[in-house]
């Protein structure tokens, strides 16, 4: 028999003492991004968000008031900064999550520990696994979150607006002359993305192509020589902060690179392109303008 800490036992005991809620009608169900159907007897009132992106999506879907805890670095919108913390996205504090008595935990499928998400389910927590791989996944997620949280009207309005803005960008830029792009998501080791990652779709939306899109791994690691050999027409970095463009300094040393010669070295704040939320279109608009300049 597993040995639990007093904190876990207290949380489980309290949950058992709570009265069972009778279903008021049909179950509320939504299919998560792994194909698993998640069903609730009533809209979720106590949601734990297990990644910064999930937190932002919940607020955008009108469910912010229902979020009772989040992980570290969940900093948007401003209200989210005051939420209690239950660990980091890659190391959840299961005891703290249980203590919040959630009726729904929304995890990041490729970022959270699979074992910890499974453990939460074993302990009776409903778990929805979220993963956005293309732009349409963002409004679709908003709609599903709104359904589970009882905020469908606000979620639908946000989803509709996202689709309109996405289509406007596509109509304006997607047919432009191709620009070969290297996107850098991390610096040590040098890390990029392949064509299955959502940032590559943003690049295509702007009429560009990812020079490392063919690689098998979602976030491939590279060496400097690989980037030099690819000789991209533009280099775009996410940086280590909302205004820190230091990663571009390294590439300026390689004066024979096409991107350096043409001064096509660009920065996009990471929260506006590396989080799959409605703000991604702000980053997309900035990137499209940069690639237009590169043309």
From TrEMBL:
SUPFAM superfamilies: Helical backbone' metal receptor. Pfam families: Peripla_BP_2 (PF01497). The keyword Membrane does not apply. It comes from the Bacteria. Residues 152-179 form a coiled coil. Keywords: Coiled coil, Signal. Residues 1-22 form the signal peptide. Residues 46-295 form the Fe/B12 periplasmic-binding domain. InterPro entries: ABC_Transporter_SBP, ABC_transptr_periplasmic_BD, Vit_B12_bind_prot. NCBIfam families: TroA_like. This is Vitamin B12 ABC transporter. It comes from Halorhodospira halochloris. The lineage of its organism: Bacteria, Pseudomonadati, Pseudomonadota, Gammaproteobacteria, Chromatiales.
